[in-house]
Write the structure tokens for this entry.
Amino acid sequence: MKKIGSGLLFTLLLVTAVCAQSHAETASASLEARAKAALAVIRGTLNVHGLQQSVRVQRDRWGVAHIYAQNEHDLFFAQGFVVAQDRLFQMELWKRSGQGRLAEILGPSYVKRDTSARLLHYRGDMDAEYKSYSPDTKEILEAFTSGINAYIAEIQRPGGIGLPLEFQLAGFKPEPWEPEDCLNRMAAYSVTGNGASELHDAQLISMVGAEKAADLLELDPPVKLEPASGMDLSGLSAALLKDLVGSDVPLHFPEAPVQGSNNWTVSGSLTTSGKPLLANDPHRVIAEPSLRYIVHLVAPGWNVIGAGEPGLPGVAVGHNENIAWGFTIFGLDQQDLYLAELNPADAEQYKTEHGWERMEVRTESIGVRGGSAVTVKLKFTRHGPVLWEDGKRALALHWVGSEPGTAGYLGSLALDRAKNWKEFEEAMPRWKVPSENIVYADRDGNIGEHSTGLAPLRENWTGLLPVPETGGFEWSGFVPNGDLPHSYNPAAGFIASANHKMIPDSYKYSVGFQWAPPDRFGRIVEVLSGAAKSQRKLSVRDMEDLQNDVVSLPARELQSLLKQAALKAGGAPTTSQRLLLEWRCDFPESSTAATLYEFWVAELEDAVSAKVIPGEAAKVAGKLSVPKILKELSNPRAVVFGGNPEAARDALLLDTLRAAEKKLSAKLGPDSKNWAWGQLHHAVFVHPVSGVAPGSKSLFDRGPVLRPGENTTVDATYFGGGSFDQLAGASYREIFDLSDWDNGVGVNVPGQSGQPGSAHYDDLLPLWTSGQYFPLRFSKKAVDGITTDVLELKP
């Protein structure tokens, strides 16, 4: 065979590449046309079966639906209809995740996850369940789900627009909703406590002992971490619960995303308007579509705007005519694991203090796409569902999800209508899951905060480790909501929270708190208290700047340690030392020092962790956190660094910096001008159906976009797992001016719509990427001024 000439080969390769690109572009154009053909009708008039009176839906230029109804039923019917127009596919996945029916559409790999979801179903008194959230919850959920079903019927009627493109590509149809579908417990599991952490802690203890494990886990307050007498913790690992993931974990994302949030409320004494300001940016997984949906609901007794989960009625976070609120996760431990010994003669019996007791067993069938249905046994001990067993032992979960009123965020149905601090406080006991620090402001000028959630009382153990099923470890009720931390009009003039420790070590209840490091909180306080001391009045723009703040307090501490080490070493600073010592400890996309810092921190994590964590435990303990590393470096111990700990510490700081510079040069080149942080730190928005058909990836996915910030900054752009890509952060932001609701601003990335043919699929991405906002108008006159699409829904 003759060899092909290099010129001809290049031409053939070029033609092949062009043809492939042309094919991909054609496929993408075809998909885009199909997506636009199936777009929801958002202007004109629709006659909808189930409405009592007409409803007006005004969508503004940013895709926010302002819904005006004449009664409560129609308001929530319309909310269900409207959110389904924008997010039906996302909602169907969320519903099926909670029902335990993903395998029907995704195949056999989801059978275990479906089994876990069914184990977590609420099986208690339904009347108590509905009334826990608000007296009219059942009626609201009936109206909301009827609206969803009306939209499903509308698009599939003869002559209708048909299914959204996502369903066409995924190969299944949406099914009708029931009110119970909004009581999803799977969605709340990941934010109710430390089931997986208990197993992680147990595994660590079995390897290094209780004392060393407690030190590595950085418990706050420090506690004596010991298993119950006679407990065998060997063979337990967090991986046993890998199929338990909630709504904050899209199907294609890692199972343990970083979670956190910021919020603060500022008294009018510190603001330009003389009225409070309130800001909130809940941190969630970065995904397409966004995990939040903004809506404005207006009807007799209702006038509230803000964001919530697409599959739930009401507004979880926002403001009404009188008050505003925002939340961050409050680290209550709302789960406990019980380790049971199984009867060798009958694996459905487990040992209790009274002898062998039989499990409750329920048999269910799980449909499987592309295969036969699978029959599974759901087992329950007296404490709750059995999440794992090996024939000898079983793990049962006791958690608040088995209590009435613990579906996530539905407590907002009462909060949405609170008019003042007294009514806000009355609504707090109804908010049980997720546990939150909820900040408050009202038009009368008051500010406050209440840390709320259903908090189990443990009188004789910490809840940090599994306990035996053989008795002696029982909840003794729940902490009275009024005894949880709260404050009203503090002297400082502001209240802030960022998942940090908010209670003293002497707190009278043992409820297993879990805290995030105080890095973000410390920076927020620094900025707000600095303004107060200088008597500089704060504006909405100042709140925007603070939400987008990228200064790192841990970076400052490490910079200070580096300065000391460099001075002791003598001589002229090296290029890398000078770069970090002259740095402002901030993380804009353009910063080269920020990139070097991240490589340096990675080297420090490896080096210090190797000194502190016994080798055999490294795979379990992982690497030390930055706060733990700072603690070891700031106060070097001989047991870690040897006979001259300060000198060894200084040498380690300089050696790891040299190693970091070498690795960074190998990756981005030796010229530091090419080390911009945005070169490595990106956000990519991946849709669940991306890649299922030619051209679908370019149609559905967005990014990469350059990102500022990092894990410890107020603008928390979390990354991990060996990549600098952002995994989680503030997908939704809100800022409210209590002097004029029309001054409120927000953003929701990538956009309000989940349909790729919509103008609102990704129109908010440029704003979010550049740290900007759009107006959240509230008054009817202001809403009319920004309305672009009007839809009249008629009976």
Q: What stands out?
A: Confidence is low (pLDDT under 50) at residues 1-23, 247-258. The first helix runs from residue 6 to 37.
